[in-house]
């Protein structure tokens, strides 16, 4: 990553505006149910606190649609962050304005203030220049540590960088470094596993990876469209009829590129989409008109696991089946287990894949778990992320 990191900059006594991703899940009583994203930002925050900066944290939470809504207040996040840091966090009532500016001016070096939800203003998502400048006026330096929003050109992720020097936080740097190396200069064999429901969600990813990987594994609902493209019967399974021709083109492209594109050889089917539905394992050539493929079968799971075991670099994005239902989770669980056992570099991106490795308790065995769902997808597509592009180059 050819961007200047915050560790290369003097921060003593400086007001540093840090865009973090504290968009954490909460229950109906506003209790945080998973603080992973808060923990992920701690290294950057601690570095700035210990370096004597006045730390100004900004984040969005949920979709308040440009209006103040107490349901989306960052106050619960402020409390949890204070517990994790072991110090008091000042909770601001706004994210711009003279009153806030005066509050920041009175801060001591090493103190931390958390601004209220930036999406309480619709100017945030519109990347309004005046709104971005008002946030920039609060600080002397800008740090983006919110990889999860780096694919959005919003005021707090891209606009603000036009007014004050902008640097990468530790999490941002880690995300871009690890995934960037995997895509640009992978240790081979390089294997990618792409799952999820729809081909249309991941066309760009598949298209970009075909020229880079040695093996491309496709599972989940999207595999049905590829099976259909091979002339197979897929019954009542989820298929994007309008993408069958595209799937044929991608199969042809893989063949031309000398890439081994692996599809399921067997599937777990049921007659209805239900947790309690009776399931059976069929070869893909045995699927009948009233079957619904809801997971890869055990033979496929083992074939995919063997490909992962022999890899030196593996990227996984998307589940192998309807893993929320126990009857159809085994394929995804086997991939998670194989990722954990792989001796190479293992990278997991995308909410469902991350949920699977967390659920199985193997997250700590992986090289990297991306904190950005949409951002990691766009990165894998080879797109330029506005929040990264806005940072200062070395």
Structure notes:
The chain has 394 residues and is of the alpha/beta class. The chain has two domains: 6-173, 3-Layer(aba) Sandwich (Rossmann fold), CATH 3.40.50; 186-380, Phosphoglycerate kinase, N-terminal domain (Rossmann fold, 3-Layer(aba) Sandwich). Helices cover 36% and strands 15% of the residues. It contains 14 helices and 15 strands. The chain has helices spanning 36-50, 75-85, 98-105, 122-125, 129-136, 170-184, 199-210, 222-229, 244-257, 298-309, 330-341, 351-359, 373-380, 386-389; strands at 15-19, 54-58, 89-91, 112-114, 141-144, 166-168, 190-194, 215-218, 260-262, 266-270, 279-283, 292-296, 313-317, 345-348, 368-369. The protein has a six-stranded parallel beta sheet. Helix 1 (36-50) links the parallel strand 1 (15-19) and strand 2. Helix 8 (222-229) crosses helix 9. The longest helix has 15 residues, at 36-50. The protein is elongated and about 70 Å long.
- SS-based structural class? alpha/beta
Strand order of the largest sheet: 3-4-2-1-5-6
Q: Please write the string of helix (H) and strand (E) elements.
A: EHEHEHEHHEEHEHEHHEEEEHEHEHEHH
Q: What percent strand?
A: 15-25%
**How many separate domains make up the residues?**
2
- In round numbers, the mean pLDDT is 95
The stretches of 5 or more residues where confidence is low (pLDDT under 50) are none
CATH H-level homologous superfamily name of the largest domain: Phosphoglycerate kinase, N-terminal domain
